[in-house]
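Risk register update: the risk of archive-format incompatibility is retired. Evidence:
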Amino acid sequence: FNDFDGTVSEQTDYVIAAGNVVATGNLLENGHLEVVRFVDGTKAFPVDYAFRFKELYDGEYVIQNKRNKYLSAGENGHFALTNLDEEALLWNVSADGSKVIISESSMSRAGGKSILFSESMGGFGRYNTDGDAVAPSVYAYTSPTTAIAELIENDDTEAVYYDLRGNMLDRDMLSPGIYICRKGLEVTKVVIKATM
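Archived output:
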């Protein structure tokens, strides 16, 4: 993933992150986007966590997850998912330094809120910008050929293991099988055999 430069491309996948968390595209019961935490200065994002911005009007976007669901307005001012882009919320997207402002368009039927991360609520939600919630960072996916996209901050990290779907695993809990192992910039396939 590369840092978001403020230019939206409909052909690019994006990850929405804040601090050490990344949005997954799934909804929690409270209407917030579910998050996962990454560890040890290494940000590894399964491609399934990516979103697409689809332009419906000039500078007005809908946000689609990898399961082809769009973010729409849910109960109590939070999110819902819909299959139809015309039921989705419209968003304006702009860069502000390292943070990205994803705010509801004035054309959106809900209008006025932004996608922000709330630690107390445990996910990304729709908030007014005057609260304690944090604006996200957005990363653009650059390699369509890898199952796990990487943004490496430290090459001396411990090995991180993933299943073949890109889910990060606890290395102490691995059972016999095939895994992807990333250590720094090196990515390898690992086979763990049953001991007899």
